## 1
Amino acid sequence: MKIAIINGPNINLLGKREPEIYGEVSFDQFFTQLQEEYPSIQFLHFQSNIEGEIIDKLQEVDESYDGIILNAAAYTHTSVGIGDAVKAIEIPVIEVHISNVWARESFRHTSYISAYAKGVIAGFGLQSYELAVESFMGK
Ligand code: DQA
């Protein structure tokens, strides 16, 4: 199974950024652990702070991967373009968030992605990504 993880703006700062919300582990550290935890899965990790690059990557991995785990971060709440891309592609997308976006500011309660996602997992810290992997594995 091939799973692409696509992360949006500021996820490259994980570990340093608001650790009380996002934790103290960098995404690279977590990604190494994830690969060890699921050796049978071929993962791709892509992070960008640029909206168009995220759209390009969603289109690029379509059909060559079994699924996408997407944390579009702040673009979740603003990007019609990323929502349209998720709608347009064939493979399933699981929307994830590290924090519980519904327990935070009201502008984080809107998602341009959720309507086209297979499902949404939020609020479990980095475990949100693991839960998405388990879902793709049918567990
Ligand atoms: C986030 C939640 C977003 O509201 C925020 O802009 C992020 C991260 C999360 O994973 O909890 O950057 O997507």
Note: The radius of gyration is 14 Å.
## 2
Amino acid sequence: MNIILLGPPGAGKGTQAKFLEDRFRIIQLSTGDMLRAAVASGSALGQQAKAIMNAGKLVSDSLVIQMISERIDQPDCQNGFILDGFPRTVPQAEALDRMLADKGLRLDHVIEMKVDDEALVDRITGRYSCAKCGAGYHDLFQIPKVAGCCDSCGGTAFKRRADDNAETVKTRLAQYHAQTAPILPYYQDRGILKAVDGMAAIDDVTRQLEALLAA
Ligand code: AP5
Ligand code: MG
């Protein structure tokens, strides 16, 4: 099963992709995570992407298209994948269609996670993750069971993203509305767009997604 989770910054794409990976045995492909790994490694790609990401703007279409195409060819994607943060522009969506056709693959579901803009700033500025295993948390909405200790690996060091500040969030949201929201009619016209209420509690959104994907 190959799916796209579409939604603004902080909609819950990454949070829900983790649940879907376990539930459906498919792989999360987050272009944001891949780019952050490139930045952390100090590679040429990372150096190119760093300033753009920190400003909340989008890196070039050609760069992410090639990154995703190579990643989909890896053996762990054979059972299917969840695209998280890609495609993000109409040219990326068009390139994805061509890429999948070339690989003999197809999209099964495109799911929009609907969240009000007002909720997103709180979600993003409160987000942090385990420095060891990457498990995601939130100051208010997703708290570790034991304070200061990661539920998944027991790690005690946590980190926040460089682009998770109120100022950059505004640019990221503006980019979403200008560049990414136009993808919605693209998939609507193809009859594969569905939606979940991303304003609901995390567990509730998971249940909505499970119901939709199991149908
Ligand atoms: P990326 O990493 O994709 O960031 P984003 O799209 O801005 O999305 P986020 O990761 O911020 O949000 P999310 O939906 O995953 O939310 P999460 O589940 O963490 O991209 C970063 C940058 O990389 C871009 O700005 C761009 O520069 C570049 N880039 C990436 N892909 C690109 C592409 N294709 N083309 C060009 N450039 C690209 O949830 C957020 C918080 O809310 C968490 O703390 C969570 O605990 C909490 N939460 C989640 N769900 C709920 C809920 N239902 N109720 C309450 N709290 C919740
Ligand atoms: Mg994410």
Note: The chain has a mean pLDDT of 96.
